[in-house]
Write a structure and sequence with these properties.
With 638 residues, the chain is of the alpha/beta class. The chain has a domain of 70 residues. The protein is built from 22 helices and 21 strands. The protein has a 17-stranded mixed β-sheet, sandwiched between helices. A two-stranded antiparallel sheet has the order 1-2. It starts with 6 loop residues before the first helix and ends with a helix. This is F-box domain-containing protein. InterPro entries: LRR_dom_sf.
């Protein structure tokens, strides 16, 4: 009987040679159950030859050798492996990853590790349980799936399995997971147990985790987290942690990033549970970022620090214990002399590059006075101060505080900001929301303004607000204040502030003098907060800013006006809406609206396009975790 050849091969008298592109050596290939044998150059086939069958356990330990075959003139196949990896790494959409991975075995080997690299689950409500199960079951063995189904039957569970598969074989995709995010799990007391069991079993199979962020912590999870050999970043929410779940974490070593959030009334006492201090001591030469966010009634995380060091024989000749620390965040902490002493020994504040201090409680003046003593000391010249990014909470904690005490706190913060001049990023949150009974807008305090201007190389300045407090007003910035900031900070690129909307035309002209401004956010503003709200709130802000720029752009009037030839501004935002700005746009993405033009008032000789891009942003739907993965993205960048 003659051999069979495809119609395509019959038309090719001289088939072209095939270029081979090897997939990464660490990738593992998933074999198709049914596949026709490929024809060779002479038309011979391997049909009829018996292929040896392998169990799933054999496949797991198999070294991939299958190459990615592409036509010699294929675009991707002609690229060097480094360039190809850069292209594939920029495919962020999971759907696109899956589609490309299904095109052939070679691309399957490339894309599956990327597709499974980050796993995120949450079950804020009962309706989320099925989605959580479908996300976790591919990483479980058949034996685990059957056991969990015996413990409770839910939508999303797999019901039928092939008898030819090894029930104890761990899925290959479990080894691909490098980052996991476990959000809020609160589907009801009756169903909480099964959700925890799924998360526990999934952690048993993931041996290559590098970044873990979890709001759920059981004893079993604590053991699995502590056993991870490649763990570099850990974020814990200890409010609902099981009793004893923190204890195994004390074995973690050489961590690079640690984020601890301990809110609520479930008291987290470091003096009783030394796990966090053990992590710090075991990672004192590697820890690069530390964030501790607690409530004011909780004990400080460095309590009895010197005693713990001596117990663990962790004494060192270094002046500070956390020698690699570059980023520190403290939120909600109370301070006393003992805490300041422990901070002085553990942390080199002069060597930090990022410092965030928010909602500090009693005794915060002790911390700021200590920081001022460091930045003004003759032993710490300006050339040795490494701090480049500072975020401060400027809100007044008015409960139980006299006006004199509030003024002292404010002046202390201003003195700290003004005590050095190395910042490139300064974020001031919730500055001075004043009583509605005060008729005159106080604007920006001159003391704070002068402190800001000390940092003449600022590239990012944000005087930001989450919203407006009841019976309070925002100290909107006047055109004069904006002009002072723009004229004295020539490197400013990103500027966020609350504008005096009645002066938006003059504010636009003042902003136009910012030669390096690329992004502007004007929020809140009066029309947004007022009632009744206008039909198109925020557009007045956009119009005033763009008209201010157009009023001075291309003054000669010769030749076609091109926005990019005169300005670097690319985006204007009012927080709840955002517009891209340019003379010409490319193809719009999903969620973008049609570009609109705006001409200069009066002569109409200059024109710029603006495009509403609000629909492209993450929608902040409360499902138990931030869809933007801010912390995970930041530490993954390291």
């Amino acid at each position: 009987m003659s051999t069979r050849r495809s119609a395509r091969l019959q038309k090719l008298d001289n088939p072209e040679p095939v270029e081979v592109l090897q997939p990464p050596a660490t990738a593992e290939l998933v074999k198709n159950k049914k596949r026709k044998a490929p024809a060779d150059q002479t038309g011979e086939t391997t049909r009829g030859k018996k292929r040896a069958t392998k169990s799933a356990a054999d496949n797991e330990n198999e070294t991939p050798v299958e190459p990615l075959a592409s036509p010699a003139n294929g675009t991707l196949s002609s690229l060097p492996p480094e360039i190809l990896n850069m292209i594939l790494n920029n495919i962020k959409d999971p759907s696109s990853m899956g589609k490309l991975g299904r095109t052939c075995k070679g691309y399957h080997a490339f894309m599956m590790p990327r597709l499974h690299k980050r796993l995120s689950v949450a079950a804020m409500f009962h309706a989320h349980i099925a989605k959580l199960i479908r996300a976790l079951e591919p990483h479980l063995t058949i034996s685990q799936k059957k056991q969990l189904r015996r413990e409770g039957k839910y939508k999303g569970q797999q019901e039928r399995y092939s008898s030819k598969l090894d029930p104890f074989a761990k899925p290959v995709c479990a080894n691909y997971v490098r980052q996991i995010v476990v959000g809020v799990v609160d589907p009801g007391r009756k169903h909480e147990g099964i959700v925890h069991r799924y998360i526990d079993e999934a952690f048993r199979n993931m041996d290559n985790l590098e970044i873990i962020e979890t709001r759920v912590l059981t004893r079993s999870m604590g053991e699995r987290i502590a056993s991870q050999k490649n763990l570099q970043a850990l974020s814990l929410f200890t409010k609902d942690a099981d009793t004893g779940a923190m204890e195994p974490l004390g074995r973690i070593k050489n961590l690079k990033h640690l984020n601890l959030e301990a809110f609520g009334y479930n008291r987290f006492e470091v003096k009783h549970d030394k796990s966090i201090q053990s992590i710090l001591l075991n990672s004192r030469s590697t820890l690069q970022s530390l964030a501790v966010k607690t409530s004011s009634f909780m004990s400080n995380f460095l309590q009895d620090w010197e005693k713990r060091k001596s117990e663990d024989h962790a004494t060192t000749n270094q002046p500070h214990d956390l020698t690699a620390l570059k980023s520190l965040t403290l939120k909600g902490q109370s301070f006393d002399e003992d805490f300041i002493k422990s901070l002085r020994q553990a942390i080199d504040f002069i060597g930090l590059r990022e410092l965030t201090l928010r909602h500090l409680s009693e005794g915060k003046h002790l911390l700021f006075n200590y920081l001022i003593s460091l930045t003004t000391s003759s032993e710490s010249p300006a050339t040795e101060i490494s701090l480049r990014s500072l975020q401060l909470d400027m809100a007044d904690d008015r409960y139980g505080r006299t006006p004199e005490q509030l003024q002292v706190d404010f002046e202390t913060k201003c003195r700290f900001i003004a005590s050095f001049n190395t910042l490139t990023t300064l974020i001031l949150d919730d500055y001075n929301q004043y009583s509605t009974q005060i008729a005159v807008n106080p604007g920006l305090s001159n003391t704070l303004l002068q402190a800001i201007l000390k940092h003449e190389h600022l590239r990012t300045l944000k005087i930001s607000y989450i919203g407006i407090i009841s019976n309070r007003k925002i100290p909107y910035l006047s055109a004069e204040t904006v002009a002072t900031i723009v004229d004295n900070l020539p490197d400013l690129q990103e500027f966020e502030f609350a504008p005096e909307e009645e002066e938006i035309d003059e504010i636009g002209k003042a902003l136009s003098r910012g030669d390096n401004l690329t992004s502007l956010t004007c929020y809140p503003h009066e029309s947004w907060a007022g009632y009744p709200r206008p039909d198109d709130p925020g557009f007045t802000i956009l119009s005033g800013i763009l008209q201010g720029f157009l009023s001075r752009g291309g003054g000669s009037g010769r030749g076609k006006f091109v926005w990019e030839d005169h300005f670097k501004l690319k985006r204007v935002s009012v927080h709840y809406r955002a517009w891209d700005v340019a003379s010409k746009f490319g193809k719009p993405q999903k969620g973008m609206k049609k570009a609109q033009s705006m001409k200069s008032d009066g002569d109409g000789k200059r024109q710029v396009l603006h495009r509403d891009i609000t629909g492209t942003f993450h929608q902040r739907i409360h499902v138990g975790y931030d869809p933007a993965y801010a912390w995970v993205e930041k530490v993954a960048g390291d």
